[in-house]
Amino acid sequence: KSGFVAIVGRPNVGKSTLMNQVIGQKIAIMSDKPQTTRNKIHGVYTTDEVQIVFLDTPGIHKPNSKLGNYMVKAAESALNEVDAILYLTDVSESIGGGDRYIMEQLKKVKDTPVFLVLNKIDKIHPEQMLPVIEKFSKQMNFTEIVPVSALNGNNVNALLDTLSKYL
Ligand code: GDP
Ligand code: MG
Fold first, then answer.
1. Which residues belong to the annotated binding site for GTP?
2. Distances from the Cα of 5 to the Cαs of 57, 92, 132, 156, in angstroms?
3. pTM value?
4. Tag placement on the chain: N or C end, fewer CB within 10 Å?
5. Membrane topology type, per the record (predicted)?
6. What b/e sequence results for 11-37 when a residue is b if at least 16 CB atoms lie within 10 Å of its CB, and e otherwise?
């Protein structure tokens, strides 16, 4: 199995940390070279069973320039071209404008599975998890909701296993 997976999320939610955790397990490639004009490769995860190319989608971040419109359109089509989208959030913080903006774009995505990845579970008590899941679920439907700690690796393998089912 193989596929392309976009990682989206506002700054500081742990996208780079997650990549380091995933790619650190099975090193294949780690590159900042532009792959196309639309996507940047974060890294490639390779095992005997699966190869996953993780991509950064620049336009998913709130635009603040004249390029904004173009970027948003490019991001929209890029998100429709990948096999799955990981939407990373910081479970210890409340939903803000950055998250709402990203979810507005994710709602336009047609057939691509969208995972809600609740990162930084090491920062909260387990009973705080359900209210967060409920809040996000009110905003939109997610294909899967997976809590992880990118920092200590907790549940990251489960995330990769679940992801593989959609490739
Ligand atoms: P990015 O901007 O989305 O790429 O976020 P980074 O990967 O740079 O992480 C931002 C900050 O959050 C860094 O200080 C990380 O060490 C921290 N961080 C990332 N993942 C976790 C996590 O699972 N738990 C905790 N406690 N901190 C994390
Ligand atoms: Mg980063």
1. 9-16, 56-60, 119-122
2. 10, 24, 24, 15
3. 0.89
4. N
5. Peripheral membrane protein
6. eebbbebbbbbbbeebeeeeeeeeeee
Atom of ligand 1 nearest to the CA of 20: 7
Overall CATH class of domain 2-164: alpha beta
Q: What angle do CA 33, 36, 37 make, to 5 degrees?
A: 100
Q: 109: CA distance to ligand 1 center in Å?
A: 26
**Nearest-atom index, ligand 1, CA of 154:** 23
Break the chain into its structural domains and give their ranges. 2-164
Residue 152 CA, closest ligand 1 atom number:
23
Enclosing H/E stretch for 139: helix 129-139
| pLDDT tens string 18-68 | 988 988 755 444 445 444 445 566 788 988 999 998 887 766 666 555 556
Tokens 């967060």 -> residue: 132
